[in-house]
Design goal:
By secondary structure, this protein is an alpha+beta fold. The protein has seven helices and three strands; from the N terminus they run ααββαβαααα. The relative contact order is 0.16.
């Protein structure tokens, strides 16, 4: 199911515009969430965050950060529309924010994203969602 179709099932949705080109990522289904981490600091201290279209928009925004000074972590936006993954990602993000592992601007960006996707948390998980969640957890446990 297309991300926009999922969002529209929920009494409409707030657009989630690409931070580079402005296209609604929930309609396009081609979004990625990026968290920027300064090199040489605590392992989970994120200083910036953004969401963008995969490909050119993501690369354009990423290029504004000096690769020798920053590293990036990413999450497919489509994965965050799985209610099990959304709840786990949201909970982990809030714990890291509470532990001051996010700078205030990065925390605000993450909270804006989770607020925009709050409709996902009310979805009833499907069997497919459960399988995807187990795979996601295995990958996340490696990091």
């Amino acid at each position: 199911m297309h991300l926009g179709d999922q969002a529209n099932e929920q009494n409409g949705h707030e657009p989630l515009p690409c931070m580079h080109c402005g296209i609604d990522l929930l309609e396009s289904g081609l979004g990625v969430v990026i968290l920027i981490r300064p090199r040489g600091h605590e392992p989970y201290r994120y200083s910036h965050g953004y969401w963008a279209c995969k490909g050119a928009c993501d690369k354009a925004l990423e290029s504004t950060f000096d690769a020798t000074q920053y590293s990036t972590g990413w999450q497919d936006l489509e994965k965050l529309t799985n209610p099990l993954i959304y709840k786990a990602w949201h909970g982990r993000s809030e714990r890291l924010i509470a532990a001051e592992r996010f700078s205030p601007p990065a925390a605000a960006t993450v909270r804006r994203l989770t607020d925009n996707l709050a409709w996902v948390g009310s979805k009833v998980p499907t069997a497919h969602d459960a399988v995807e969640f187990r795979l996601w957890r295995m990958i996340m446990d490696e990091f």
